[in-house]
Amino acid sequence: MIIQAVSIADNGGSLNCHLSDGQITRFHSIWLRDNANDDATKSSGNGQRLITIQDIPETVVICSARFADNRIIIRFNDRDLDVAYDPAWLMSHCYDKDRSKRSCWFADWVETWDGRLGKSLPSAEFDMVNTDSRSLYGWLFNLRKYGFAKLENGPVKSGALMDVAGLFGFVRETNYGKWFEVRTEVNPVNLAYTGLGLQAHTDNPYRDPVPSMQILYCLENSAQGGASIVVDGFRAAEVLADQDADAFALLAGHCARFSYEGSAGVSLHARRPMIETTPDGEVITIRFNNRSAAALTDIPYEYMQPFYRAWRLFAEIIDDVSMQVSFKLAPGDCFVVDNTRVLHARNGYSGKGSRWLQGCYPDKDGLYSTLAAMEKETIAV
Ligand code: FE2
Q1: 379: pLDDT confidence band, cut at 50, 70 and 90?
Q2: Which of 106, 208, 264, 266 is the most exposed, having the fewest neighbouring CB atoms within 10 Å of its CB?
Q3: Can you spell out the DSSP letters for 187-229?
């Protein structure tokens, strides 16, 4: 859709853009003034705004508007200056849309998935993403799209996970260190010993902010079993909303509590919902971890029983094997999850052998920034 003509409306309070399909999309004068890109309003060097909201008069109106050289030229009443707007930029930022209330939706780049994703795991070779920018872009693109991706055949050396993090961002240091060990020696004397399985969870919901990504890098995995499992929490939220909209609303509408006090000098607590949404209904974060769930104190008495029912329903969806993708990591393999979205688990393991993983928490903004920058540089296909 392109803008074919413009006209002033509301006594200069807004601009009507007449589109090629006969529709009109509107922009307020204050919005247009705020988004002017002249040198006095916005830095041409870094694109940052040079004015504050108070620098725009509340009474700002459009005095004139016209097309010239494929630009929309506007003059406001607060300055003796023509301001040019790119019609394509305006169309890509239009906000005059139908906004019927939606309660469970996702960002454009998100594709939710269930166990069927196991047939085509998002995965790449360590050497390829380190040497070929298109391979790296494709791998990072899938990581953003699915909130999960594997990387195979990397070096079997302690700390190699930091090289993976360095592909797209920076690691957040916590009380567990820059990275942490997930190491279990299976008792070779007692072959009946079974390593405990873990219910699918997101890590550290007791932190605020919660770690937004996790890398789990395998250095040894000779024990029997011990497969890794991932579940798309966004898909689980979607299924919950479809099955029981009230249950979804309960989990999204009330704060749960999460705590960790397992180490000396550490006392971490967070009061956040299990399903976090934006005010307009986009699902942005899943927090789900039975081990660090604390006593619920923020749900009105009359909703507590239904809240538990909703929590159980959500857990049953997450535990459903049809939602799970499982795989076994070999030494030198790793997987990365968006910890605000994808839950991870491990099956129990037994017999002789050992299992040694290292984990760390890169921040997700690095992933998005790297992808966006690559797209700008047209490294993307
Ligand atoms: Fe974990």
Answers
A1: low
A2: 264
A3: -SS-TT-EEPPEEEE-S-TTSSSPP-EEEEEEEEE-SEE--EE
**CA 27–ligand 1 middle distance (angstroms):** 47
Distance 339 CA to ligand 1 centre (A): 9
Structural domain 115-376, CATH architecture: 4-Layer Sandwich (3.60)
CA 343 – ligand 1 centroid, Å: 8
- How many whole angstroms from 266 Cα to the centroid of ligand 1? 18
Task: Tell the CATH topology of 3-92.
Answer: NE0471 N-terminal domain-like (3.30.2020)
Rounded distance from Cα 240 to ligand 1 centre (Å): 23
Q: Where are the domains of the chain?
A: 3-92, 115-376
* Ligand 1 center from residue 357 Cα (angstroms): 11
How many Cβ atoms are within 10 Å of 69's Cβ, its own excluded? 6
CA of 116 to the centre of ligand 1 (A): 23
Residue written as tokens 């921040």? 363
Q: Per-residue confidence at 187, pLDDT binned at 50, 70, 90?
A: low
For residues 176 and 296, what is the distance between their CA atoms, to the nearest angstrom? 26
Tell me the average pLDDT across 364-375. 97
Is 333:123 a contact under the CB 8 Å cutoff?
A: no
pLDDT at 190: 39
Distance 345 CA to ligand 1 centre (A): 7
Phi, psi for 202 (deg, rounded to 5): -100, 150
- The residue length of the chain stands at 381
Say how many Å lie between the CA of residue 232 and the centre of ligand 1: 14
The Cα 175–Cα 194 span in angstroms is: 29
pLDDT in tens, 261-270: 988 999 999 9
Res 25 pLDDT > 90: yes
